[in-house]
TrEMBL record, chains A, B:
It catalyses: isopentenyl diphosphate + (2E)-geranyl diphosphate = (2E,6E)-farnesyl diphosphate + diphosphate. Pfam families: polyprenyl_synt. The keyword Metal-binding applies. It is an enzyme of class 2 (transferase). It comes from Thomasclavelia cocleata. It comes from the Bacteria. One of its GO terms (cellular component) is cytoplasm. This is Farnesyl diphosphate synthase. Keywords: Isoprene biosynthesis, Magnesium, Metal-binding, Transferase. Its EC number is 2.5.1.10. One of its GO terms (molecular function) is (2E,6E)-farnesyl diphosphate synthase activity. The lineage of its organism: Bacteria, Bacillati, Bacillota, Erysipelotrichia, Erysipelotrichales. PROSITE patterns: POLYPRENYL_SYNTHASE_1, POLYPRENYL_SYNTHASE_2. One of its GO terms (biological process) is terpenoid biosynthetic process. Belongs to the FPP/GGPP synthase family.
């Protein structure tokens, strides 16, 4: 997986280096290269790998997903949103630069992710399908809706189902899209199963975030812990405690694994990602 | 032109009404329907009209341009950017709602403009070409670069050439893209001439903005005047005075008209837009 991360990082750098020099280019580079785990692009590329297909041609599409993920983090950290100072152990984009630069850096990433796919060496039909999956997932009925719901429940208690709905859109939509984009170029008939796997992993991932906000180490996490409690935010942990939350995380990973076994692919590549996610401490 | 504006408005409303209900949907609707002049979509559709081709099929692409224009205004008005309270005589998006909602509304519009084109009844080849023109123009080497340059020159004097470069990207790129998108569906061989016409009009438009910031009526303009002077911002007016600036505006419109005469189209439709722009007081 390390090789994959290196290839993703090097392609992301190439993409950004093509922009005209400006402070916003620097801010984009700073946030893109701040040590993200690259989970979403890895998922897309390992899905392709699991069919025995060479993933190198699809690095561009995978980078587009990471660009959208990074834009969402930059805007999410802004003073007008979560007002966070630290991300991955480094100053957030608006802290390192300034607010205007961070707003434009986020806008730039969301905009340029389109251009990355448009410029890639894919057929026009494939470009359209990739853009459809990606921008549906990141849009007003997808990831952005997740952000809105998250905001709406900042000052009122969310129940279990409401939390799931927030997680489904805020995290699940983009992770699911990454897996679907991988399946699209291999065997589109499997797309719905991959989508389901993506949602299971997305929900598990988000509950882990809630747990890590209580049990995690702020130095390892690279951001402050305890903020959910401080903000009186409803989380899985506040609703059902750490142990029960961890049981649900395990259950989601188990269900994702069972779905995976329905597919005629090299499971071990995806199981490896899930094992890594299960053990994550950041 | 009134009929065109009505059709654009009604299509924009249809697009937004399809989103899931949320405060961000309301904010998008509020800003989209706040009485914009619809210059960019009108330009695209009148270029198509000028070839004698029915523009109705292209309303979606025209709306996508307006959505990108509106997102740029919402983000531009944010406290972290220009911190404006009024736009078109109404509270800016973050004033009417809140900052987080305005950030997400802008993100939503930029994201959904892609989906509008993807969902339109065009061939995949046409969708790709339209997206290429639009997202190149609005991106990190286009409109966003214009914003960055504008920021960079907030605290230092810009000369004539530097101002032109800012205007070229900040306003010219998107207006030019609108004309190119119209030409693309009619006669792509004319695209470069339309691009040039777009840049001339864009520069004239932006210098008019500088003039109106000094001579305009804040009630008619729907925003406060005198802000450039207050912010010690370099403008055409501060560099060469009102009369000389007006002469340059007229010269750009004249050059745009001369370019127009090179084309085998119904000029009068485009001349009508230019006449309206020449006389604009808001």
């Amino acid at each position: 997986m390390e090789k994959l991360i290196k290839e993703i990082n090097s392609r992301l750098l190439e993409i950004v280096d093509n922009y005209q020099d400006s402070v916003v280019k620097e801010a984009i580079k700073y946030s893109l290269m701040a040590g993200g785990k690259r989970i979403r692009p890895i998922m897309m590329l390992q899905v392709i790998n699991s069919y025995g297909i060479d993933y190198h041609d699809y690095l561009d599409a995978a980078c587009a997903i990471e660009m959208i993920h990074t834009y969402s983090l930059i805007h999410d950290d802004l003073p007008g949103m979560d007002n966070d100072d630290l991300r991955r152990g480094k100053p957030t984009c608006h802290r390192q630069f300034d607010e205007a630069t961070a707003i434009l850096a986020g806008d730039g990433l969301l905009n340029e992710a389109v251009n990355v796919i448009l410029k890639a060496c894919y057929s026009n039909d494939l470009k359209i399908s990739l853009l459809q999956i990606l921008y549906q997932a990141s849009g007003i009925n997808g990831m952005i809706l997740g952000q809105v719901l998250d905001m709406e429940f900042e000052n009122k208690k969310a129940n279990h189902q409401e939390l799931d709905l927030i997680h489904h859109h805020k995290t699940g939509d983009l992770i699911s899209a990454a897996m679907k984009m991988g399946a699209l170029v291999c065997d589109y008939k499997d797309m719905l199963i991959w989508q389901e796997i993506g949602y299971k992993i997305g929900l598990a991932f988000q509950i882990q975030d809630d747990i890590l906000d209580v049990t995690g180490n702020s130095e390892i996490l690279g951001k402050k812990v305890g903020s959910d409690l401080q903000n009186h935010k409803s989380t899985y942990v506040s609703l059902m405690g750490i142990d029960k939350s961890q049981t649900i995380v395990n259950q989601y990973f188990k269900e994702a694994t069972e779905l995976l076994y329905k597919l005629n692919v090299k499971y071990e590549l995806i199981l490896e990602i899930m094992e890594k996610l299960k053990k994550r401490v950041k």
